[in-house]
């Protein structure tokens, strides 16, 4: 089979989408089409998402040998092993593509000029516009945060997966208003009380999916216990943003020591703190968690316990908001947000930062 894949962003980063077409190598017949919107991210991330979608479709169709054709020189050279993958945000996507490649007997990458990749390009643009695939019916299985359907008043005909997004309870870093990323700060006594209150508010769920850091795991355990002992599943992609050299510092300290870097970071989600991780990189991994939860628990209520940055990014993409949202949305410790995801790609944000359950603390 032949996979033609592409991705694009209107701005870099900007509104992004991917497209992929699977063809019969002998007849040229279109066997499958994939497209999906990715919220705000970079052109290279979108190109990798297109590759992943195309390989996934080919595997589902039972392909044994695949030729991948893309007009992205970067993806073709990196996946062929001739160029290093220097950008940390692309490494997880390349690893995901490599895992898919191992399903086939052989995979060959071929660079083609953009004018020969019009089908995949059209799908990527349709995804960015919120449209279905042109000419052919699309098999839409997004790897990004949303696959935006055309606006419709038609009621959904299948139940939604409701994700109850819970920020962990208070830590000492929270009290002191310090950057708290990968450091494993424990819950304070007040934080434990907040987690118990959140657990009561969340109620019945099918499972709890959590960041691996202890402040989240402890919060998740309380939610699971209150829900009758449902499973707690660790998902590394839910970990907080890596703030690099800013870890454990206050905003004022960072602004004093890295004024230019701080301004750039506030201006663009593509910019990372020194030795840290950008919000675009966080968004790419968190979107994978959203897709895994949707696939594993269709039509069920699931608690997702994480940190400020991952939860904000899920809400941003669910609301189709711009990058400014990240600096205008406030999430309290143990605050609760809710998002419904329907199988057809429909999304409804039900709540943002509910805190009534914390009123007595």
UniProtKB/TrEMBL annotation:
Signal peptide: none annotated. Transmembrane segments: none annotated. Residues 1-129 form the RNase H type-1 domain. Residues 127-159 are annotated as: Disordered. Pfam families: His_Phos_1, RVT_3. This is Bifunctional RNase H/acid phosphatase. PANTHER family: BROAD-SPECIFICITY PHOSPHATASE YOR283W-RELATED, HISTIDINE PHOSPHATASE FAMILY PROTEIN-RELATED. Residues 137-151 have a biased composition (Low complexity).
């Amino acid at each position: 089979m032949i996979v033609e894949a592409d991705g694009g962003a209107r701005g870099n980063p900007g509104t992004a989408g991917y497209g992929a077409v699977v063809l019969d190598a002998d007849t040229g017949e279109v066997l499958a089409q994939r497209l999906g919107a990715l919220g705000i991210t970079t052109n290279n991330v979108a190109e990798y998402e297109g590759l992943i979608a195309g390989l996934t479709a080919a595997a589902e169709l039972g392909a044994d040998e695949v030729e991948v054709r893309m007009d992205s020189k970067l993806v073709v050279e990196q996946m062929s092993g001739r160029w290093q993958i220097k950008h940390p945000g692309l490494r997880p996507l390349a690893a995901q593509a490599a895992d898919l490649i191992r399903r086939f007997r052989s995979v060959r990458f071929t660079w083609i000029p953009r004018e020969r990749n019009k089908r995949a390009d059209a799908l990527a643009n349709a995804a960015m516009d919120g449209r279905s695939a042109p000419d052919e019916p699309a098999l839409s299985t997004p790897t990004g945060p949303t696959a935006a359907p055309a606006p419709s008043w038609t009621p959904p005909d299948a139940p939604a997966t409701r994700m109850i997004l819970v920020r962990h309870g208070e830590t000492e870093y929270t009290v002191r208003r310090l950057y708290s990323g990968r450091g494993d700060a424990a819950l304070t006594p007040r934080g434990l009380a907040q987690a118990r209150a959140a657990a009561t508010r969340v109620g019945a769920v099918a499972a709890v999916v959590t960041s691996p850091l202890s402040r989240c795991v402890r919060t998740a355990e309380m939610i699971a216990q209150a829900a009758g002992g449902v499973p707690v599943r660790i998902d590394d992609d839910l970990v907080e943003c890596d703030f690099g050299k800013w870890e454990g510092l206050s905003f004022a300290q960072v602004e004093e020591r890295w004024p230019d870097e701080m301004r750039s970071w506030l201006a663009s989600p593509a910019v990372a703190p020194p030795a840290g991780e950008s919000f675009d990189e966080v968004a790419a991994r968190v979107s994978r968690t959203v897709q895994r939860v949707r696939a594993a628990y269709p039509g069920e209520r699931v608690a997702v316990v994480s940190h400020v940055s991952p939860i904000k990014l899920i809400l941003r993409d669910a609301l189709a908001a711009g990058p400014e949202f990240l600096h205008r949305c406030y999430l309290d410790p143990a605050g609760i947000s809710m998002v419904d995801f329907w199988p057809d790609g429909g999304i409804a944000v039900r709540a943002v930062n509910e805190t009534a359950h914390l009123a007595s603390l």
